[in-house]
Specification:
Blueprint: E1 3-14, E2 19-30, E3 34-38, H1 45-52, E4 60-65, E5 68-69, H2 75-82, E6 85-88, H3 100-105, H4 114-118, H5 124-136, H6 152-164, E7 170-174, H7 182-199, E8 202-206, H8 210-216, E9 219-224, E10 227-232, H9 239-246
Parallel strand pairs: 3-8, 3-9, 6-7, 7-8
Antiparallel strand pairs: 1-2, 1-4, 4-5, 9-10
Length: 256
């Protein structure tokens, strides 16, 4: 399979050189793969995802998406590439006082002139696209409800619908279920899995629980202190590997 994303020798240093968040990270992702990142809090998962779309600037190394070196792009060219990379956030990142529809339409901001988006003047085609996205995540009936009136799981589904508005080829999901209960976690991850399976979208998703990684990931990369300590199928993570990733005192928790 053709490589959709290539990360080469990625390094990120924070706080004037005192914190090495990513330490020489390299891997390749084939088109259409569902890749899960695991590791303890602070292992570098969020930093890695945010370096891929340059919400965080890498210190060194390269990120190549569909043959284009993202790390070398400037303003307009970067904006055009970012349109093709959807992002789902841990804390949803919704405008709480805006309606569900307004939040979903914000996923088209990379496609419309700034003045039109500020005035809320979206095309009929974009409105229909937003309705289809909401129908897909089961929230069409909440279209005119304020985002802050929704449950956590519903808010995250709005985040998924917003990402769908970009018609992404790559979807980055940064701990998308860490604030949710187990049943809701599965509900949200099944929508992401459906986008991967039915639309052929490449997915990089960071998760805290290994049981979720085993259920949804085709491949797992484990980070520890900014370095890759495992890269392979989730079935190969035995007790010994688990303790190497999470520490000797860690115990596996099943999310059912």
């Amino acid at each position: 399979m053709e490589d959709h994303l290539i990360v080469e020798h990625l390094v990120k240093v924070y706080e004037r050189g005192k914190v090495l968040a990513l330490n020489d990270i390299s891997f390749r992702v084939p088109k259409g793969q569902f890749l899960v990142l695991i590791g303890l809090s602070g292992s570098g998962k969020s930093t890695l995802l945010r370096c891929i779309n340059r919400l965080v600037e890498p210190t060194s190394g390269r990120v190549i998406f569909d043959g284009v070196d993202i790390t070398r792009l400037h303003h307009r060219a970067l904006r055009l590439v970012r349109r093709r990379i959807g992002m789902i956030f841990q804390q949803f990142n919704l405008v709480k006082r805006a309606t569900v529809l307004q939040n979903v339409l914000s996923g088209r901001l990379g496609y419309v002139p700034t003045w039109r988006s500020l005035m809320g003047r979206f095309s009929r085609e974009d409105l229909e696209r937003a309705k289809r996205a909401l129908e897909r995540v089961g929230l069409l009936d909440k279209m005119y409800v304020r985002a802050d009136q929704l449950s956590g799981g519903q808010q995250q589904r709005v985040g998924i619908a917003r990402a769908l508005m970009q018609e992404p080829e790559l979807l980055l999901a940064d701990e998308p279920v860490s604030a949710l209960d187990p049943a809701t976690s599965h509900s949200v991850l099944k929508y992401i899995e459906e986008i991967n399976r039915d639309d052929g979208v490449t997915v990089l998703c960071s998760l805290h629980f290994l049981s979720l990684a085993r259920r949804y990931g085709q491949r797992v990369i484990a980070l520890k202190a900014g370095k890759i300590v495992f890269d392979g199928p989730p079935s190969e993570i035995d007790d010994e590997r688990f303790k190497e990733i999470y520490g000797e005192e860690a115990e596996q928790v099943e999310v059912r």
